[in-house]
Structure formats: structure tokens, C-alpha cells
Design brief:
Length: about 325
Amino acid sequence: MGQMRKYRPIFVGIIGAALLLAIYLGILTGFNSFDHAVKQSLRIWPWISLLIAGFGVQLGLYSYVRSSLKKLAKSTTAEVVATGGISTGSMIACCAHHLSEVLPIIGLSGAAVFLAKYQLPFIMLGVFSNLVGITIMLGIIQRNELYPRINIFKHLFNYNMRTVRSVVIILSILIISGSFLLVSCKATSQTTDQGSESEPSGTSEKSARSGLDLKTNDENGVTFEIKPVSFGFEEPVKFDVSINTHQGDLDFDLTKISVLKDANGALYEPLKWEGDPPEGHHRSGALSFPKLKEKTKFMELTIKNVYGVPERVFKWELK
């Protein structure tokens, strides 16, 4: 029994880290699939690992302090709960952009897009909050002279933990603020570049006349570029599609969120998608539909519920 009590902090840390990972995988699996959850985890595994490990270490130290002191200050418990909550919130922020796919409410969709855009800064917030929590626990251990019982930390306590905590807090504020600022500046720069390159003088008029030119939609940080391929009324309709973003994964299935409509109101479901799988920041391929039932004045491709945008509509006049 005494041996079990000795290793209890280690067990608590491992279980806490496992629970945090389970929350993350559970949310991604619920919104998409377990396979997608694994792929997403592997894409940002260094940050996910730091977040999980930091949370586990913090909980382990907290368990050690609690079992070593008869009376644990309420403020210490509150600090652990607060930093742990930030860790959980940061993990949820990793997959928050999926909310826009299932909650087409403007406010919630907007929040999901914001969290997706600042995904990495939010993860960093969780990592550094864990680091602050760890220095708080080490300070309590140093203040109450508990460190002789845990030799692995013995050499750490040559330093003043209060000073270490202050340095960590200042560095955390600077790094996290810088990361938010960097993402904002990058997004602004990309928007400016796209605006300057997308429509030179006379481009929209030319596009309207030619009918089957490239169509572009850029909303909520996701850019679609779509162009019909060798269109003819006697053959299936095929579109070249290019999708780009820097705010999260493009993990949607275009065959499930796209529909083609003609001027007579007839609707056509996609036949197939030939191209990149549902993942990553850049995707391209061909989206095919059945041939149109009859000659029509125009065709309209609609893509629904991508990153909080209910409908993205692409229309071509057919001469």
C-alpha cells in the first residue's frame, strides 16, 4: 500500500494526460472520424505532445504536494484548476473549426473560425499555462521543503522558484502575444495580396462575357477557385477545383456538400471527387456531375457550410 502511495503522483499524471488526449480525440472523432482524429494529431503532434505532457506533469506535482501536506491552500487548488482549464480549452480550440460544419449559427460559426485561425497561438497558450502551473507547484515544494523526498527534482531547487515563475510568466506573455500578432499580420498580408491579384481592371466584365472562366470565392480564410473543364451539354459536367487556407484542415467531403443546379431548377448530385483527400491546407482535384438534362441558360454550383459560410455560389452563363 505504501509503495502504491509512493507512485501515486505518477499514476495521476499519466491518467490526467490520457484524459486530456481522450477529450481531444473524442471531439475530432465525433465531428468527423477516428481516422481523421489520428491524422490531425500527427499533423501537430509536437504541440499536442507538449500540451499533454505539461498537463500530466502539473497534475502529478499537484498530487504529490497534496499528499505531502495535510492542508492544501485553496488558492493552490484554484491555480491548478485554472491552468488545467486553459489546457483543456486549448485542446478543444485545436478542433473548434468543426463547429461551423454542425452549428450554422452566425455567432458560433464566427467563434469557430476565429479559434481555427488562431489554432497554434491557443495551443501555445495551453503549453505555457502548464509551464506556469508547474513552476507554481515547484514553488510550493521548495517553500515547504518537500524536495528531499523527490530526488529527481533536487537540483532544480538551487534556484528561487518565485523568480523562475516570474520569468516564465513574462516570457509566456511575450511569446503568446507575439504569436497572435504574427498570425494576424500574416492573415492581413494574404488578404491584401489576394485582393491585388484577383481582379485587375476589366477582369470581372471579361469573366461575365466568357461565361466559363475561373470563378473565385474567398470568405472566412478559405479560398475556392473553380473552373469548368471542356464543358458540353452531351457529356458529364466536370470542374477543376482548388482550395486553400492557412487556418485549419480542409477535411470536408465535397461530394456531400456540393450541388449543381440549372436554369430550369433541376438539381444534380456529384458523381465523384478525383483529387486530394479531405485533409491539409491545400487541396485540388476534379469534381464531376451528371450531364445536364437539357440545354439551359446557366448552371450554378453551390458548396455549403465550409468554415461558417452557409453557401458559396459559382455561376456560369451558358451561351
